[in-house]
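Changelog-adjacent note: as of this version, every example in the card shows the full chain rather than a window. The one below runs 293 residues end to end.
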Amino acid sequence: MGQSMHTAGDALKKAQQQIDRMDAQYLLARLTGRTRASLLAHPERELPAEMAIIFETQVAARAAGVPVAQIIGCREFYGREFVVNEHVLIPRPETELLVEQALARLSGNKCPQQADPPRVLDLGTGSGAIAVTLALECPHANITAVDLSVEALKVARQNATALGATVTLLKSNWYHALDGQKFDLIVANPPYIAKNDVHLAQGDLRFEPPMALTDNSNDGLASICTIITGAAIHLNDHGWLLFEHGYDQAESCRALLAQHHFTAIESVPDLAGILRVTLGQMRVPHPSTAAAV
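Full-length structure tokens:
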């Protein structure tokens, strides 16, 4: 760090010439263990040389476009802090809607009533944010989470351990490793960005794992189709399927669910009013289906 940067105020002033003001304040607050308000109220506080060097490195990374969550190694989701890195999708606030809708069906009389705890499957778990949150918010449920990425599963396992959640983690390409298991609720935040979408080359998405963002289909619906087809086989009677999708995919997702004999089909808007989660319930009797996905 330059010799002129002796205080928190100096560090912020220089950083804000390179990155967003709020990002700079957040990074320095995390690094120093102080609040943003405290940093701004006392800009004269000395910044130790070692800390100043780390901050300068963080600012350079952010200036290069690296997401803040990857720089600090974590992101808050549903009131808890989750470890993240370049191998997993950074949890988004809108995905909390998916958790809320799942919890609503795990409570009351919406899930199949059985003597055993409800069985829940999280497909493409990534950081484990959804599975771990469901396990902690609904401790009577039996949670299984799968991902094709071994590195992602390491992160999910780390989060489950750190937060005290009981989750069964499996390496699997969607349903392949589940050997005919059935669940009462299946939840997924699959890759749904079309392969030629310009957003893949912009912002934070440049630094996140491509396989978590796009399935390389022209419409971004290939993984969703696979999930719906397999859910018809892996859901118990009256079980629920819920998944996140793109801002313009709700109508197509509802149509796909209807084609696979789901009922109670609904798309739910996020806080921005965008239809972000679509869900459906397994109709009984089960339709005849092809071999398990």
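Structural remarks: Confidence is low (pLDDT under 50) at residues 289-293.
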